[in-house]
Amino acid sequence: MCGRELHVISNGQSELERFARIASLIHPYVTAFHLREKSCNAKELWLAVLALKTGGVPLSKVIINDRVDVASAAGVRGIQLSYHSLEVQVVKRLFPGLRVGRSVHDVQEATEMCRQGADYLVYGHIFPTNSKPGQQPRGTKVLEELVKKVPIPVIAIGGIIPENVHQTVATGAAGIAILSGITESDNPLKSVKDYREALDR
Predict the structure, then answer these.
(1) How many domains does the chain have?
(2) 125 catalytic, yes or no?
(3) φ, ψ for residue 150 (rounded to 5)?
(4) Which of 6, 8, 67, 160 is deepest in the core (most CB within 10 A)?
């Protein structure tokens, strides 16, 4: 696999058992799987991690959103934080073994998260997407400006399909994150291969 990252994110609407089954099939092509399940409690997230592990997904590829307690207890590689989460600097101090990502929405926020010690950033949405109806996409030009301002990897998210992967990573972005383009596909294995091929070009 080349250096560009491919993150696959659960959408909080499908069954986690199905997500785990798909992840077990496609994980050789994927850098990270995010459990982005705002309605799940700690035990449900724990069981989801176990399902991923049972399916052969390395814990080094598992990232839990927001719940740093579960991430630490389950022994996964990373935590993804947002504006309502604990501060990056707090998580880095208390859980130094976790790779800490932070979702950001502008250059100022990105710069501050770098100062706090974030290991990578997730930025978007880049293109129009059904998950953000009526909201103006930020586009690749702004993405490129942000990438140039920060010294850590930036993962682009939002409306990314295989056909626009090249223009996305041409900005200098370290990779892409996909919410439904793979896990909601009729053929997830073909879809993940399409994304990986586009990233590796």
Answers:
(1) 1
(2) yes
(3) -120, 150
(4) 8
